[in-house]
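Notes, p. 3: input format for complexes.
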Amino acid sequence: MDRRRLFANLPSVDKMLSHPRVIELEGQYPRTLLVDIIRAEIDGCRSKILSLTEDEMESFSIEVDELVQNIKNEIEREYALNLTRVINASGVVVHTNLGRSPLSEEIKEDMWEIASRYSNLEYDIQSGGRGSRYSHLEDIIRKITGAEDVLVVNNNAAAVMLVLSTMAKGKEVITSRGELVEIGGSFRIPRVMEESGAKLVEVGTTNKTYAADYEDAITEDTGALLKVHTSNYRVVGFTDTPGLRELKDLGEKYDIPVIEDLGSGLFVDLSKYGITYEPTVMDSLKNGADVVTFSGDKILGGPQAGIIVGKKEYIQKMKKNQLTRALRVDKLIICALEATMRLYLEEDMALKKVPTLRMLTYKIEEIEEKANRLYSLIEKAHISADVKIETGYSQVGGGSLPLERIESRVISIVPENMSVSKLEEEMRLSQDHVIARIYDEKYVLDVRTLFDEEFEIVCDRLKKILG
Ligand SMILES: *Cc1c(COP(=O)(O)O)cnc(C)c1O
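Output follows (467 residues plus pyridoxal-5'-phosphate):
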């Protein structure tokens, strides 16, 4: 064969488009994308031919079947959504980079129904007139928390901003130096305050702040006392910070509202399940916060949202703030949140059905059972690696309980013919995108954050890579 003959044998785009398997693809994918990919594949062949030596040319032929297969692979890859599923074997339950809380299986039908049909989002079915999108969440969140009123916005950062903008714009807000937190993505409490138009007054020191420090800073310009739950770090040792009750007493004495940003909202006291006590939303209200804000998708286990609960007089004002319109939540979030909240009407139900809570409260026997299950699957796959069940520690994540190490079981893997970091990379880059840790020079899969159906997937992928 000479080069000219090879070029002449190259199929045209039209010829490829009439191939039965390509016609099938045309039914599934956009035609323009398909044509672009066919063209690129043919161009690839052309370059290949140009680069052939005389000898190579002798044995070279154009395989149409192979070309079709390449086109199929390429169009699948290009058409796949960029936002894609990953398997979390990191043991970090509320993993912000991996989408925080996975939603409950229980709510999927409700969500699809609202997503794919019309709804009473802002329509009052009783009167046939206009309704409020916020009304759907009010009753249920009031019922669970006992709060007077509720408002839900885009996320907790937005909630803090709206609260401050409504209650303290142009006024001073007193906060402890020990609580000026930065959470991920450089959300800094001092900056948020500035954006909201409130003026920050820092009191105390990093490790010690007393109620008297707040009291000394109170002036006629004070708009609120703010307590920020230091969710992602702890000042340990010689520390002091006034409790909510003390702030409440001050607030009453000077007629100033007390705001608490709880960060991760909790409705269930997890100390019953072996996790360090954290104030629940109900505790916060009971202890005198006038307004409390928290996230929907941290430990609460719902969709991304910022939930504001507290005194009606303040929340009514927030509802009228122009900012609220810019921070509003859409119907999918409202539906997901309402359906998740419904599970909280009974604590046991929430613990069972909300994946985040379920993962955080597994008994160690349940974790052992999961580890054994994954171990035996891997054992049967006969991979070339040293595989063990070991004790490891999971984390809550999402900037919550930073010091908490929850005892777990992990499968540790040391491949025989591959480096641990190469294995980590191949698992991550594979179609299944398994995200795991390297610890102590071993590849470590924490079973706590694996869903049941993912055990086989992880195992099959290990087999493909190390089999
Ligand atoms: C996480 C957190 C926020 C921000 O919440 P998002 O829902 O991520 O916007 C604000 N304050 C505290 C204390 C937090 O922990």
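The pocket of pyridoxal-5'-phosphate is lined by residues 155-157, 160, 181, 183, 187, 228-229, 231, 261, 263-264, 295, 306, 399 (CB under 6 Å).
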